Prior knowledge:
The protein is mainly α. Helix content is 42%, strand content 7%. The protein is elongated, with a radius of gyration of 59 Å. The model has no long low-confidence stretch (mean pLDDT 78).
Amino acid sequence: MHPNHTPQRSVEVHHPTPIPPPVVHPAPVVPVQPGTVPTVASIVLPDGRVVTGYAIDAVRPEPVTTKPAVSRTAVNVALGGVGFLAVCGGLLLLTSFIAALTAFIGQLIILAAVIFGGWIAVQVLSGSGHKGGTTVNIRRAVIKRNHFHG
């Protein structure tokens, strides 16, 4: 269609109507029997509107239960048992440590005896060879010095 041939539409203009301010009325008191909550509650707001809904019970905390008292004798027996076990464990560890230390010292003594005994055996059994001093065969030295050949 050509723009000149478009049909005319009527335009309707809407003007907003102002909302009057709410008139404050005191909320009427709804009589309720004490101790009962109706299944459906209605509340009248200050501007006159009525809101209806279900009543919700307030969450009540669970009552605090008292713990039974623990006797002092039971506490003392338990602590004594723990202390006794700790002492026994400590004595067992101490005994094991002393046994290991004794075995270690014994091994060191045996090692020292083997080394020292071996050194003495070498000294005693080596009759020939170097005996720790200077050995001089005087006759050979004299012969060599004077160049005597025999």
